[in-house]
TrEMBL record:
<dbReference type="InterPro" id="IPR050789">
    <property type="entry name" value="Diverse_Enzym_Activities"/>
</dbReference>
<protein>
    <submittedName>
        <fullName>Serine hydrolase</fullName>
    </submittedName>
</protein>
<dbReference type="Pfam" id="PF00144">
    <property type="entry name" value="Beta-lactamase"/>
</dbReference>
<dbReference type="InterPro" id="IPR001466">
    <property type="entry name" value="Beta-lactam-related"/>
</dbReference>
<dbReference type="InterPro" id="IPR012338">
    <property type="entry name" value="Beta-lactam/transpept-like"/>
</dbReference>
<dbReference type="GO" id="GO:0016787">
    <property type="term" value="F:hydrolase activity"/>
</dbReference>
<keyword id="KW-0378">Hydrolase</keyword>
<feature type="domain" description="Beta-lactamase-related">
    <location>
        <begin position="96"/>
        <end position="362"/>
    </location>
</feature>
<feature type="signal peptide">
    <location>
        <begin position="1"/>
        <end position="24"/>
    </location>
</feature>
<keyword id="KW-0732">Signal</keyword>
Length: 380
C-alpha cells in the first residue's frame, strides 16, 4: 500500500515520539571492531530504520553530564528538523549532538550514525592534530615559546645544506596558520614514500624558495604533517602511542587514526572518532583545557585557539567565523571536515555542537540544519 504524504508524516512522528523515550542509543552490531572503523569499514554499516532522537540523553558514565532540553519551542523545532532530515534536506546527516551549559541536551543518530562507532572526520583530523599538540605542551614536551621557533630546529636529521632558501624561516606557528610557504611545481613530491624526516628532507629540497610572498595562507596537508612529525620526534618516535595514552585514554573512548605513507599519523584526513568523543574535546577547549575538571590541554594554547581578536580565518587548525549573527565578532570556532563533519564551539552560548555526515559535497548542511531549526531557541 502506498502511503500519502500525511500518513507518512504521522508515521514519522510516531517514530520520533518513540525515539524520545528510547533508553539506549543505537550501537555497532555485535562483534564489530570499533577500533577498526576506518572510512572504508563505515560504508558497510547499514542505515538505521529510523532516526534515534533524545532530548534527555542517557548518562553513559563517559564523563559527559546529561540534561533535558525542554525549552519552549524545542519539541516543535525538533519535529520539523526530523521531517526535513528524513526528506534528505541535510544530505546524509549521521549524527547531531548539542551540549549546552555543561550538559548534553540533544542527541540524534541516523543512517550510519552509532553512539559507539567512530566516524570519519576528514579535516577535523587537522583540528585533532592541534589537540595532540596542546596535550604535548601541557606535558612539557614543547612550550608555547616553541611555536615561534623554526620547524627544522626540531628535525635533527635534516641536511640544511640541501634545503631551499627560506625553509629555515618556517615556524610552527606558520604551519599552524597554513602559512608555511611550501610550494611545489611537481605535486607528486608530496606523495613520496620516504619515511619520517627523510620525507620532509625531500619536501624541503624540492619546494620553491620560501619568501614573505609565498607565506600566504594556503590550505594544505603538508603543514599539519610537519606538526605531527615534531610530535613524533618529541614522543620518542611513537606519536601513535602518545595519542593513545595521552589523548584517547584520558578521554576514555575508542578511535581509529590511520597512518600516512611517511610513517606518521595522517593529518589532512584519516582520523575517526565517536560523536561523543568530539563533544568531550570541544567542551574541554570551551573549559580552558580542563577535562573532567582536571588539567588536560595547555591553557595557554587553548587561549590562542579561543582568541577571537584574530578575526575570521583559520588558525591552529580551527575555523574562526561569524555564524547566525550580524554582530561584529567571531562566535563560532570549529573543526570542519569535508562532507559535513563539525566539532563546533560557540563561546558566547556556552555550547558545543557536533555533527557527522557522509556526503561528497554539501559541507555546510549541518550548519543549515542548526540555523533552520535550533539557533533561535539555543540563543535564548
Amino acid at each position: 500500500m502506498k502511503l500519502n504524504t500525511k500518513q507518512s508524516w504521522l508515521i514519522l512522528l510516531s517514530f520520533f515520539s518513540l525515539s524520545l523515550l528510547a533508553e539506549a542509543a543505537p550501537g555497532l552490531a555485535q562483534g564489530s571492531d570499533a577500533e577498526n572503523q576506518t572510512s572504508k569499514e563505515q560504508k558497510s554499516i547499514p542505515d538505521l530504520a529510523k532516526a534515534y532522537v533524545s532530548t534527555s540523553p542517557t548518562d553513559l558514565k563517559d564523563g559527559i553530564s546529561v540534561g533535558e532540553w525542554n525549552a519552549p519551542g524545542a519539541k516543535q523545532a525538533i519535529e520539523a528538523f526530523i521531517g526535513d532530515d528524513q526528506e534528505g534536506k541535510y544530505h546524509n546527516l549521521d549524527s547531531l549532538l548539542i551540549h549546552k551549559d555543561g550538559k548534553l541536551i540533544f542527541e540524534m543518530y541516523n543512517r550510519r550514525g552509532r553512539v559507539d562507532g567512530p566516524h570519519y572526520t576528514m579535516s577535523v583530523t587537522k583540528t585533532m592534530t592541534s589537540v595532540v599538540l596542546a596535550r604535548a605542551i601541557q606535558l612539557g614536551l614543547l612550550s608555547i615559546n616553541d611555536l615561534d621557533k623554526p620547524v627544522i630546529d626540531f628535525m635533527p636529521e635534516i641536511d640544511r645544506s640541501k634545503i631551499q632558501a627560506g625553509v629555515e624561516s618556517i615556524t610552527l606557528r606558520d604551519a599552524l596558520y597554513m602559512k608555511s610557504g611550501l610550494r611545489f611545481k611537481n605535486k607528486s613530491i608530496t606523495r613520496n614514500k620516504l619515511q619520517k624526516q627523510a620525507y620532509f628532507q625531500a619536501l624541503f629540497e624540492n619546494t620553491a624558495a620560501i619568501t614573505s610572498e609565498s607565506k600566504e595562507y594556503k590550505y594544505a596537508g603538508t603543514d599539519p604533517s610537519m606538526i605531527m612529525m615534531i610530535l613524533d620526534i618529541k614522543s620518542n618516535g611513537n606519536v601513535q602511542k602518545f595519542i593513545k595514552e595521552e589523548v584517547i585514554a584520558k578521554l576514555g573512548t575508542v578511535y581509529c587514526w590511520n597512518e600516512q605513507d611517511s610513517g606518521i599519523p595522517s593529518c589532512g584526513a584519516g582520523s575517526n572518532f565517536t560523536s561523543r568523543t568530539l563533544v568531550k574535546v570541544g567542551t574541554s577547549i570551551l573549559n580552558g583545557g580542563k577535562l573532567n575538571g582536571e588539567p588536560w590541554l595547555s591553557p595557554d594554547y587553548v587561549k590562542l585557539i579561543m582568541d577571537t581578536n584574530k578575526g575570521e580565518g583559520y588558525f591552529y587548525y580551527f575555523h574562526n567565523r561569524r555564524k547566525f549573527t550580524t554582530e561584529e565578532k567571531v562566535n563560532f570556532i570549529s573543526g570542519i571536515g569535508a562532507g559535513g563533519q563539525y566539532m563546533s564551539i560557540y563561546p558566547d552560548h556556552n555550547m558545543v555542537i557536533v555533527a557527522t555526515s557522509h556526503n561528497k559535497k554539501n559541507i555546510d548542511s549541518p550548519l543549515k540544519a542548526i540555523g533552520d531549526h535550533f539557533i533561535q531557541i539555543l540563543d535564548k
